[in-house]
Amino acid sequence: MTRDLGDLTAADYLEAAREMTAANRPYLAHLLAEEAADRTADPATAAGIRASYSHPSTARQESD
Fold first, then answer.
1. What is the DSSP letter of 53?
2. E strand or H helix that includes residue 6
3. Which of 26, 32, 46, 56 is the most exposed place for a label (fewest CB within 10 A)?
4. Do 17 and 48 form a contact (C-beta atoms < 8 A)?
5. Closest CA to 27 of 5, 49, 58, 64
6. CA 29 from centre of chain
7. pTM metric for this prediction
8. Which DSSP category does 41 fall into?
C-alpha cells in the first residue's frame, strides 16, 4: 500500500470503490469511483465508471 495519494491509479480507486460497495458503503464507493473516473484518460471509460457508481441519493430504492 502506498502512502502518497499521488501514486494511486484509477485502478486503485476503482478497486477501493468495489470494496466499499461490498461493504455496503455506497456514498464512499461513489466518491472513490468519481476519483477513478477523473484519473481516466478515455472519456467513454470515465462515463462508464460514473454510470456504474451513481450518486446514492439519486439511486432509487424500493421499500416495503
1. T
2. none
3. 56
4. no
5. 58
6. 5
7. 0.80
8. S
